[in-house]
Amino acid sequence: MKVNYNWLKEYVGDVLPDAAEVDRLLTEHAFEIDGVETVEGEIVLDVDVLPNRSSDCLCHRGVARELATILDIELAHDPLRAQPALTETDKITVNIADTNACPRFTASLMTGIAVKASPDWLKTRLASIGQRSINNVVDATNYVMYAIGQPLHAYDADLFPQVDGTWQFGVRYGVAGEVVEILPEGKNTEPRQVTCVGTELLIVDDSSNTPIGLAGVKGGQFAGVHAGTKNIIIEAAHFHPTVTRKTARRLGIVIDASKRFENECSRELPPYAQFEIIKLIKQIAGGEYQGTLDVYAQEKNNPPVDVRLSKVNALLGLELSLEQVRDIIVRTGAAVSDRAAADVLTCIGPFERTDLLIEEDFVEEVGRLYGLSNIFAVTPDTSAVATVSTKQFYSEHIRQTLLAAGFSEVITSSFQKKDHIQLRNALASDKSYVRSSLAQNLHQVLDANFSHTDLLGIRSVQVFEIGTVFDKTADGVSEHISLAIGVCQKGNGYTPKDNAPLQVALDAVATSLNTPIDWSITQGVAEADLSAVIAVLPEPASYTAMVERTTATYTPVSPYPSVARDIALWVSVGTSSDEVIKALRAPAGDLCVRIDLFDTFEKNGQTSFAFRLVFQSQEKTLTDPEIDAVMTVVNAAVVELGWVVR
Amino acid sequence: MPPTPGHQHPLTQMIDEINHIFSAIGFTFAEGPEAETEHYNFDQLNVPKDHPSRDMQDTFWFKDADVSEPTVLRTHTSPVQARWMEAHGAPCKIIVPGKVFRNETTDATHEAQFYQLEGLHVDKGIHLGHLKGTLEYFFSHFFSGKTEVRFRPSFFPFVEPGVEVDMRLLAGDSKLAGKWIEVMGAGMVHPHVLQAGGVDPEEFSGYAFGMGIDRLGVMKYGVEDVRDNYSGDLRFVNQF
Asked: Hey, are the CB atoms on B28 and A387 less than 8 Å from each other?
């Protein structure tokens, strides 16, 4: 959430530290700050409000209150300090079909206002947090929401039908098939027609039972405030978080208002919001306040929670005193009283927070406000012995066996374009099934890697994978670990020549485990149910010592193709191939990414070496003339060194 | 002539190293199913019924006709905490490396599948200091150098207090050295999760942590595009 520094200062007072310090304090004790920028000349912090604080901190007063708690001060100005002084009106009524879905509904009437552009200070504040200015009334509703976290909506009272001088609101569920027109979103100019399925909560004009908006989600054009509006009704209500969320998600709407309802802002907020907006509208649009309807059918108060000093210290690993714990909890605005039992505090969270429900919630408050930096690390016990995981032991054992046999390990996708079990909601059409075997992927891996054999300095592709596959059974979905091994010696797919090296690997695995394995082999890929194999193996007493691990730093692969050139030359017997490779590096240059020996023999007192040079650029596709030029240099260097190019 | 040795995938290399480090301090390598029930993936972990993470947008669901109870591709390795406590009770000390699945758009830092490492330690008198010490021990060994760890406030449904963990390599010339880096979420196991696992929160307490192993790969090997891990491309694997 974007938070304007000056706005915060209005609540916290001049003692508010500078933005950098605010950043540091919030980061250490409350929320991560995703950045501090200057927008419209104002300093704005991007506060990553945690999900459990989204009921009270998705507003400036909330973040200000949090800072006051951290700094252990009182807010200089707190719009939630005193019960708002509102008067009643009988000119507005509301018919609420389900008070679970709408536990509180308030609506205020103001007359004789003048709709015009907002004053500059308001435009700037809203712009700084990324909000567009519309007119003074609509801006005021947004402003109060970002100020204290309660969404509001304003209607033109003269465009809202009256019955015997009263305006009749209704809150009910939509009927399946009923169409509600809501305001356009984003770049659209046309209003959106929503067809209800029956789970949406609607605000209606009860006199005609006409829907005028989706409660908590999106309003309609109905009775919209315009330049000529003189009289307004301002609605501030509480809508059930789940009902709101379901509707918003189904329609793909996420707006700041629905987000606040979804996170269950307090039911106590609506009258405070009314008080603030009436004050603000009088200030910027004039007019007179005529009264507020407040139907609060279902009260919800924070529960009293017993917090034991012993529990606080036990979970945090600290040795705080009761006084220290009490002081911290009091700072949050909670009501704290001592229980008859020793070292127990009964705590009730402040009304604007709906996240302080159990003892551990208060333990978290103490921990973060006291400072998590005070947690003292306890060195772990190295005398403890862990039970050996049979699966991990034998999987690693198989890996080492196959690595020694010249096979490399891959991990492929668990998703398939087509297989036995389809997911209900896959991201893409080529990933909507889960795999029943590893072999399919391994065949693709063999094919795909063959074009890189030069770059890799290998003659054939030899790979394996250990991974989970899914089976469809009479009872549902089951899974097992599978082992698949594949060989491909030629670029155009499987040939029977692949069987022999594959069999060498299969035998190596079976021998190392001292158990026969039931392989299913197709076209150079063998697969076995590894869960079944491991199930009959003896439980190991301990892990084997860990082999030396790679310390490589990964270099991203160039997207450009490599080019290979061979060179064969005669050298005098006794010259090593390494010596020749070393000598060839300089003339071959930086574009040469590898030099491998692929053939050697002796004849007439001389040794022949044949090398494959592989060239690749990180920036472009290399051309034949470019590489020809390099090879000319290489050939010349060979001659210079007294060797003969064949 | 013996063949040139093949190359082990960096993810399984890391998992093996992680296992060696943690088994030395008594953590058992545990596992659970990738096709996980809604019960263990969400309900037993205190994730509310209407929590956004259960959305179609975030989670892969199996078709009702194919399964006997609502089933997902697990979105985290945390369900194994619930399974293990239910099966073995307390005390317990486990790590759970495993593949997890998220229904989100893929890019350099997001894949539909990736690897997570879960940790759980429940016993009498366990507190945040034990979590800190265990993590410092782990990172110091894993990154071969003295590391320190710090906590910041955070929120996850299955822990309370919840923390975000940053680590800092104190010495060395790796490009990580000296900087605080966010590595994982953790916290004290929520009493509802303990109770769901049949463990009495009045008698036992525990910490849990969860981190992305692919993320560790960014820091340890510089594999910045997570999709490289699953490409099956030997130009990637053979570098390790």
From this structure: yes
